[in-house]
From TrEMBL:
GO terms for biological process: DNA repair. This is Type-4 uracil-DNA glycosylase. SMART domains: UDG, UreE_C. GO terms for molecular function: 4 iron, 4 sulfur cluster binding; metal ion binding; uracil DNA N-glycosylase activity. The keyword Iron-sulfur applies. It comes from the Archaea. It holds the Pfam family UDG. Belongs to the uracil-DNA glycosylase (UDG) superfamily. Type 4 (UDGa) family. NCBIfam families: UDG_fam4 (TIGR00758). It comes from Candidatus Nanohalobium constans. PANTHER family: TYPE-4 URACIL-DNA GLYCOSYLASE, TYPE-5 URACIL-DNA GLYCOSYLASE. Its EC number is 3.2.2.27. Keywords: 4Fe-4S, DNA damage, DNA repair, Glycosidase, Hydrolase, Iron, Iron-sulfur, Metal-binding.
Amino acid sequence: MTFKEKYGDFFETLHPDYWEEERFVPAVGPEDAEVMLVGEAPGANEVEEGEPFVGRAGEKMNDVLRDIGADRDELYITNLVKIRPPDNRDPKKEEIEAWAPLLEEEIEAVDPDIILTLGNFASKEMLDTKKGISQIHGRIFSREGRKIMPVYHPAATLYDRSKTPDLEKDLRKALGKEDTGQQKLSDL
Ligand code: URA
């Protein structure tokens, strides 16, 4: 069953203003994943490949996951908004609201042990806070009985490399991967 078939009821009710087949990117990952990652919205690379986090931010995320010994294939990876916003603009509030019920359905279906919200958009939306990601990253919050940890968006670490150790530390904590002091491939 495709993602669209699985959540068919949602797609039937989604207002056409928020739908564009050519810009749609479904979630990826096991339906019973223990960890769910929630990004912002797909970009051009994601649309091309039909999968979230496969562009530069995705490569960065993969590097960090590999460095901490985590397996991307075990994670359920989704976005707040599943249509690429035009011209790489930020998702609008009404777009986030239109797509929010689908994310709630995904959370119910996957039933993850922990949800990681990547960056400000996903974190502020899911935690209903105005606090910025630099203030709240790495802390575990409870939302409707579920654990949520905001972490830096991997794209933010591309602009500001000093954020990479924090992203790595937070992912280690969330995924239960201890720091063994081993050299990282990305240091080569
Ligand atoms: N950034 C996101 O937030 N999501 C993606 O899928 C890709 C980049």
